[in-house]
Amino acid sequence: MRSDHWLDSCPCWFWLSRTPKALPQTLRVLQAVCILLCRDGRALAHLASPWRQWATLRMERGAKEKNHQLYKPYTNGIIAKDPTSLEEEIKEIRRSGSSKALDNTPEFELSDIFYFCRKGMETIMDDEVTKRFSAEELESWNLLSRTNYNFQYISLRLTVLWGLGVLIRYCFLLPLRIALAFTGISLLVVGTTMVGYLPNGRFKEFLSKHVHLMCYRICVRALTAIITYHDRKNRPRNGGICVANHTSPIDVIILASDGYYAMVGQVHGGLMGVIQRAMVRACPHVWFERSEVKDRHLVAKRLTEHVQDKSKLPILIFPEGTCINNTSVMMFKKGSFEIGATVYPVAIKYDPQFGDAFWNSSKYGMVTYLLRMMTSWAIVCSVWYLPPMTRETDEDAVQFANRVKAAIARQGGLVDLLWDGGLKREKVKDAFKEEQQRLYSKMIVGNHEDRSRS
Amino acid sequence: MGSRSSHAALIPDADSLRRETGFSQASLLRLYHRFRALDTNKKGYLSRMDLQQIGALAVNPLGDRIIDSFFPDGSLQVDFPDFVRVLAHFRPADDEDAGLRDPREPEPLNSRMNKLRFAFQLYDLDRDGKISRHEMLQVLRLMVGVQVTEEQLESIAERTVQEADEDGDGAVSFLEFAKSLEKMDIEQKMSIRILK
């Protein structure tokens, strides 16, 4: 892997060496500094920290002076909740209401409705799912106006600092990053097409792996992504499936720049389609037509075929099916867990301090999103490779999926939710409601039913 | 510059809303953000569908009834003031002495009576001021689903109406409802505290 280090720094030097000699020396030094920052954004990160703290304090002071209400973000919800169960709550309500001694006879009280009423209102005020689909709120400002609700004119110094930040981001970092991204993508398309002409064999595989890797690494530089990989010994092997939590399309680039994967996805049109068609010439990725995506059996069959061929690369799948804002992990779709291959879970956790990577697809299109990424300070994230898991004999696909999800949530420090990320588009299943109804009916009808059933 | 700034100036009629509902400025701001988060297409109002999208509400057996309480008289939209007015019923009771309140001013939305009225209307579907046996049965059916047989449910509904009914008209009026719950600590059970 170290051997292509010279390859991926090559385009950077290409741009640097082509600068006409007429330009003053300072500009070339600046360019070199920016390239250095692009390659190792850690320096940038350390530089910005004291400025950020000062900016946040200044804003709070300014808001207090002007008597404005500062919007303080809350990651744990905006209302006080008691985590008591349905039975306890209803018993508590009944106890406080009636003077007669409670002898545990099951019955209905008019006051039972209060429990459901209040629970319902609590979810209207604050529920676990809706807030996962908007960008995570930061407690301290990172000098990007997009992450701050309180951004208004407070003081000259703050505005100057913010303005300086804008200048650096849009005028230095953005053009450099766009140039790198352009280089990366065109090298990918050209490289994979050329490799595709070679006859199938070991040499072709070797070349295609390295072309892919080089181009992904250039794209990583283009986003100034600072990635820390943990436990690299657990990296996925051939014949396995790699599952990870999904926050943005960048996840793919982050994982693929540290390993060799076969991609799975739907065929798109436009530039993405061109890239997809080129990539599949060099090595077997699994692309589905739009119509095939609905057919679960076909999807499962193709994935199984791919996985059983040990010469093919491990598949990369995001079972949540949609982008979540990286504070929680939502329900995993069971399709990839039914195949029966070894699952290699990966947890990806972004640090939102330097740029929020979450793609809110209802708010931003892909191009806007990429531009936002490229004008942030940096994308900082940690990747943990978890030990491989296989399905036990006594558990079904859903239980296996939940087990993997719990492991990923635990490692990444994310909240493990049972809800389906597709909830924002579809209605929730009735099974959950029936569970509540069952619990309640036990309270009002109770053991009579059990006795009559048995 | 501040395209995302949202202090209280953005909330329409913030002052009169604050007086009417009793929410603090900070709470109102939070609820406004919540309103905007629920309003998926940025229409400026909420429709039934927006509230039905909340997963945790959809699994609540009384979810539909609770949503109905936001849309009285067949309306199809609820704007922010009406949204807050309904939620104001669940504001915890103030600590100030009830005697200090000016008796000429209308009762605050989160008074005990108003909380009871809110719960009453969840039962009373046709808004005729009485809970008939049929309406009681409907609510019970919602809360238990298919777990309980029709006869058992009918006997429970019959018994409940009989216990609460005092004037013998076979239905529970609001005053009878309030009387049967007079010992209940409504303030605590029907209150949601918004964190500062």
UniProtKB/TrEMBL annotation, chain A:
InterPro entries: LPCAT1-like (IPR045252), Plipid/glycerol_acylTrfase (IPR002123)
The keyword Endoplasmic reticulum belongs to this UniProt entry's keyword annotation: no
Pfam families associated with the record: Acyltransferase (PF01553)
PANTHER family the UniProt entry points to: GLYCEROL-3-PHOSPHATE ACYLTRANSFERASE 4, PHOSPHOLIPID ACYLTRANSFERASE
BP GO terms, sorted: phospholipid biosynthetic process
The encoding gene: GPAT4
Domain Phospholipid/glycerol acyltransferase: 240-351
Gene source species: Equus caballus
SMART domains per UniProt: PlsC
Transmembrane regions listed in the UniProt entry: 153-172, 179-198
Name of the protein described by the UniProt record: Glycerol-3-phosphate acyltransferase 4
Subcellular location field: Membrane
UniProt signal peptide: none
Keywords from the named record: Acyltransferase, Lipid biosynthesis, Lipid metabolism, Membrane, Phospholipid biosynthesis, Phospholipid metabolism, Transferase, Transmembrane, Transmembrane helix
Entry's family note: Belongs to the 1-acyl-sn-glycerol-3-phosphate acyltransferase family.
GO CC annotations, alphabetized: membrane
Domain of life: Eukaryota
GO molecular function: O-acyltransferase activity
Pathway named in the protein's UniProt entry: Phospholipid metabolism; Lipid metabolism
Location (main, coarse): membrane
Automatic annotation (TrEMBL), chain B:
GO biological process, one term: positive regulation of transcription by RNA polymerase II
GO molecular function: calcium ion binding
EF-hand domain span: 26-61, 111-146, 152-187
Major location category of this protein: membrane
Keywords tagged on the record: Calcium, Cell membrane, Cytoplasm, Lipoprotein, Membrane, Metal-binding, Myristate, Nucleus, Phosphoprotein, Protein transport, Repeat, Transport
Superkingdom of origin: Eukaryota
Cellular component, GO, one term: nucleoplasm
Keyword Heme part of the UniProt annotation: no
A Pfam family of this chain: EF-hand_5
Subcellular location: Cell membrane; Cytoplasm; Nucleus
InterPro entries: Calcineurin_B_homologous (IPR051875), EF-hand-dom_pair (IPR011992), EF_Hand_1_Ca_BS (IPR018247), EF_hand_dom (IPR002048)
Family classification: Belongs to the calcineurin regulatory subunit family. CHP subfamily.
PANTHER family: EG:114D9.1 PROTEIN-RELATED
Name of the protein described by the UniProt record: Calcineurin like EF-hand protein 2
Species the sequence originates in: Equus caballus
Gene name in the database record: CHP2
